[in-house]
Design brief:
The protein is 40% helix and 20% strand. It has a five-stranded parallel beta sheet, sandwiched between helices. The chain is of the alpha/beta class. The protein is elongated and about 55 Å long. Helix 3 runs parallel beside helix 4 and helix 8 runs parallel beside helix 10. It is built from eleven helices and twelve strands.
């Protein structure tokens, strides 16, 4: 059974490598691509005010990559600023960008989900009244954490550091998609975003819910599970979004 990793290309390749190292047959089929921010000058300007923020939250590895790509040469992470991370992948990217481990706040390693709610569980005991927070994300997204921080008295700014755009599958990826549709029992979709499922539906406009019924997928959040079921995927398996948890989930359902 081949696992189809649908994350953006760079992250998909990393997951494919890790899954293959664990003896699994995995292939990258990115369904979302990452584009530059609608206004790159805003990302550059954010670096000038970075020391003013008590907390900078990064919602994904892409947010880290795009934000630090705009860093002025020689700039260091401010001594007093915390870097909020929604999960292990984002934390790894922050560390790769030389953010000190002591400055990073992330969900507990055993959190059921790596999301805004789990990050807030680690932030909620801190005083936020009057403190400045920057949330670095893509174009749009959930406002739950921003609203929660504002409710705690923080001054919150949102920065769109990148855009999520539709991927353009090459010939090999189109062939992989065709094989997955033709032989669903031999493939297992790995979804880490609802947008990837929307893109999959757009790539296969002739398939209705009945056609998707034989397919199976692993999803890393309840909202993604809802979208997969809405598409019509018959077997939807939930997993924590960590490589060992996903590996265990795959092994539990392999024929």
């Amino acid at each position: 059974m081949r696992i189809l990793v649908t994350r953006p290309a760079t992250q998909a390749q990393a997951w494919v490598r890790d899954l293959r190292e664990r003896g699994l047959d995995a292939a990258a089929l990115p369904l979302i691509a990452i584009g530059a921010a609608a206004d790159p000058t805003l990302v550059q300007a954010a670096w000038e005010t970075l020391p003013e923020h008590a907390l900078v939250v990064f919602v994904s590895p892409n947010a880290v990559e795009q934000f630090f790509a705009a860093a002025p040469r020689g700039t260091r992470w401010p001594d007093r600023a915390l870097a909020g991370s929604l999960g292990p992948g984002t934390t790894r990217e922050l560390r790769a960008c030389s953010v000190p481990a002591a400055a990073i706040v992330e969900p507990a390693a055993d959190a059921l989900q790596f999301d805004s709610e789990s990050l807030w569980a680690e932030l909620s005991a801190r005083p936020w009244q009057g403190r400045s927070v920057l949330i670095v994300r893509g174009d749009g997204g959930r406002d739950w954490l921003a609203d929660t921080l504002r409710g705690a008295g923080a001054r919150v700014e949102l920065l769109g550091a990148y855009r999520r755009v539709a991927s353009k599958p090459d010939a090999a990826q189109r062939a992989l998609l065709a094989a997955a549709v033709a032989a669903p029992a031999e493939h297992l979709w790995l979804f880490s975003s609802s947008e990837a499922i929307d893109r999959l539906a757009a790539l296969c406009p002739d398939l209705d819910a009945d056609a998707w019924r034989p397919a199976q997928a692993i999803v890393t959040h309840p909202r993604i599970a809802d979208r997969a079921r809405a598409l019509g995927i018959g077997a939807v398996h939930a997993s924590r979004p960590a490589i060992d948890a996903v590996t265990a989930c795959i092994q539990s359902i392999r024929p």
